[in-house]
Amino acid sequence: MKMTARGSIAALMTCMAAAGAATPAVADSVPVGVPLEAVETTLGVPTPHVATAVPVPVVGAPEAPRHHKGDMLPTPLLPVVPIATDLGVTRVTSPVPNLLGDPSTDGEGSLESPDTTLRTRSPGAVVGSPLTMPDGSNNGIPNLTAPKLGVIAPEVIGAPTALLGLR
């Protein structure tokens, strides 16, 4: 092998090792401000201010299938996949003019949703085999059975809340 080929392979291996060693920064959510300034200048009315965060879902490891004695297929056949994310803080504020019919009572209404963790699990499927295990009394030939089908229901776990205020 020539020296240039060895140098190229060494450089490639170094780059791959550096890329594998670098841990990517994982954000829980990405902050986003909704630009409504153009509406305010066009219509000439005060617009609400909206700030939120787009959640970044993190997919977990699928549930491993389990084999039971006497079953030919694992349970569940279609595994359940957990997904977790953080719903970021969402805040909507809007000017509220003339609350009581008097300009001195101008205020601001707000709706805020604090940071919440949300966990979900995808649906899964359980399928039963239409054949039994080999039967010794039937010369080792499996018997027919009624096939079974089941669905594992999806789950959503979280407790999002909201606060409504006026000042």
Structure description:
The protein is α+β, with helices and mostly antiparallel strands and 167 residues long. The protein contains 2 helices and 11 strands. Strands 1-2-5-6-11 form a 5-stranded antiparallel β-sheet, with no helix packed on it. The radius of gyration is 29 Å and the shape is rod-shaped. The N and C termini lie far apart (77 Å). Residues 19-25 have low confidence and may be disordered.
How do the strands and helices of this protein lay out in sequence?
Elements: H1 3-21, E1 29-34, H2 37-43, E2 49-55, E3 58-59, E4 82-87, E5 90-96, E6 107-113, E7 116-121, E8 124-127, E9 149-152, E10 155-157, E11 163-166
Keywords:
167 residues, alpha+beta, 5-stranded antiparallel sheet, 4-stranded antiparallel sheet, 11 strands, 16% helix, 34% strand, rod-shaped
In short:
The protein is an alpha+beta fold. It has helices at residues 3-21, 37-43, and strands at residues 29-34, 49-55, 58-59, 82-87, 90-96, 107-113, 116-121, 124-127, 149-152, 155-157, 163-166. The model is unreliable at 19-25 (pLDDT under 50).
